[in-house]
């Protein structure tokens, strides 16, 4: 049987048969694709339905247990903050001497007299310890050597004097130290007011301040101290600052050897050690070279006060 001849003799039937075969193939492909899509959609639906079922049986957030845990955490944090605040209040800077007991109208004169007395005492201490202070040393409060402070400046000045007196005694007690600078660094707050009649218009003259907004502390000012001293004395000074009864922050420190050249090595040969009584040779000792130069030191120290504050209210949830 010649199939080609049959197709040629029956063109209409052949075309219809070919169309049927192609249509069947296309329909089969479409059916398979639709079934595959249906399977994927069914699986996705089942997964999401399962997730929805799981979520529908869970407690709505926040639950009572969640709120209880959050409340306990907040209470613990607040307790730790209160504990820290209480510890920092130990660094509160009180007014100098009996300043609070003096009548308001007498406080400016009392401050000036007390300042002069403390400067004299510190100069005497420096003489005793062999330290040298600047000729114009006045605890950084030079503006009030000959002029009375304004009443609104006294709350800050009386606390500054408390810290400056301690710093002055610590510096002047360094044996053989040469102090080149001991001054308050000018601040924007200081420019608000100056001692009347002051020649310098008081860039260091402070005005009354309040604790920084939202912070539990108040900056009383920063000191600039430049000196030359022995290395051991400098170590003692740093230890004293870290153990100070006040909160002092070393913002900047620069240390420079007073000599630009290293110490010269002794070229003369050392005499050999003599043998011991039993004839044994002593252990050989290595030569040690130690520099004995003084050092030039620059310090910038910030004075911070932590005033006593009432207990804060408990956090709300």
Secondary structure layout:
Layout: H1 3-9, H2 11-56, H3 64-88, H4 107-129, H5 154-172, E1 178-184, E2 218-229, H6 231-242, E3 247-257, E4 295-305
Antiparallel strand pairs: 1-2, 2-4, 3-4
Throw out a few tags for this protein.
alpha+beta, Alpha-Beta Plaits, 2 domains, 4-stranded antiparallel β-sheet, 6 helices, disordered C terminus
Strand content: 5-15%
How would you classify the helix and strand content by structural class? alpha+beta
What would you say the CATH architecture of the largest domain is?
2-Layer Sandwich
Largest sheet entry: 4 strands, antiparallel
The CATH topology of the largest domain is what? Alpha-Beta Plaits
- Count of DSSP H/I helices: 6
Which range best describes the helical content: under 10%, 10-25%, 25-40%, 40-55%, 55-70% or over 70%? 40-55%
CATH superfamily of the largest domain: Ribosomal protein S6/Translation elongation factor EF1B
* Tally of strands: 4
Shape summary: elongated
**Overall average residue pLDDT:** 81
Count structural domains: 2
Distance between the termini: 95 Å
Radius of gyration: 43 Å
